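Let's practice the habit of predicting before peeking. Look at the sequence and jot down your guess about where helices and strands might fall. Then scroll down.
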Amino acid sequence: MRFWPNIAFGTAGYPEKIARRLRAVNITAFIAAPVAAAFALFQALDDLETLWILVAINGADALVWAAVPFLHRFGPLAGPLVLAGSVYVSSFALAAALGTGSGIHLYYIAAAALSVLFFGVERAKLSAAVVALGAIMFVAAQLYLPFNALLVPPATLIVNFVVSAAVTIAILFAVVYYAVRAIARAEAAAEREFARSEALLTNILPPAIAARLKQAKEPVIADSHAEASILFADMAGFTARAAETLPVDLVLFLNDLFTAFDLLVERYGLEKIKTTGDAYMVVSGVPAPRADHAQALARLALDMRAAVARIAERTGRPLSIRIGISSGPVVAGVVGTKKFFYDVWGDTVNVASRMESTGEPGRIQVSEAAHARLEDEFELEARGEIEVKGKGRMKTWFLNGPKPSPSPPRTGP
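Done guessing? Here is the structure:
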């Protein structure tokens, strides 16, 4: 069962920024209205004939403040203006009728302090005017109104003062607590969105390139790398397979395959550049240089081939991959301003692409430049010279696997 009114009453349809302010107005009204009603009731029961003016003012306040949430339908300023105006007028009237010893004019402090929250920082002039008016009326009440206008017993003034002070503190605490909690939630949401955007950015770009892009100090991000290795991979017979496969099954297959490749790329600390259809491109030694760029890419290629074999065994459908590798200088950079991407260019990239397209299903073909960097650690099978589009005759090799480790020397007799 709900014992506290719905603080969001009347705020539906407003943007969240405005709705938060109106909820703060509702909190104030929901605290002040019952207090005013209780004062009216107790004063009527105590001495209606003497205190009728106080009963009338407090009763009117209770009705006006209870109606404040209903005023939000007339605009975002209707409720706050009516609440602030009624507090200012009735507080002065009550202080004049009962005396400043009752502490009723303390409400000016709460009303003035909360004006910025009620009206918003974009209405700074209105907020400043409300604060200034509240300060003037508070000082005027303190200086010019009697201390005990109705000559009520001192105990009555003390009770009124304590209640007025308590209500002022309660309103300030409740509204400020709500505002701080709302700010904390907004900050937490912003941090989650920031972390999400950071994760998305680093999924699109290498972390080092993403950091440079965020700094916005370079109009164009383009780097030359003297040593790097490029890998292209493509599924053999994919076009025929795609024609025979349901679209959803085809997407699930590619997702399964590329997810396995992505995990391997991450394991070796390499950079996936892009996927196009069933083609997969990886660079090693870019953007961070590494001496073993060719060796790391060779190990990745072997593991990719093994991953394809496992998927084929699991699905029961024939599946093979062509992989091509080349090494040499490349240029890397960020292309575009919308839907931008990180890419690499150069003759090394073109040769690696040709190594894939002229390769054989299930095999890893490497160029002469890659062979020179891999021959000490890997078993390479000479294919001889092949015709490469745009390059003429080129020597190529097939990467079969790592060379076996030499046996440790025997010791002892």
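How did you do? The mean pLDDT is 86.
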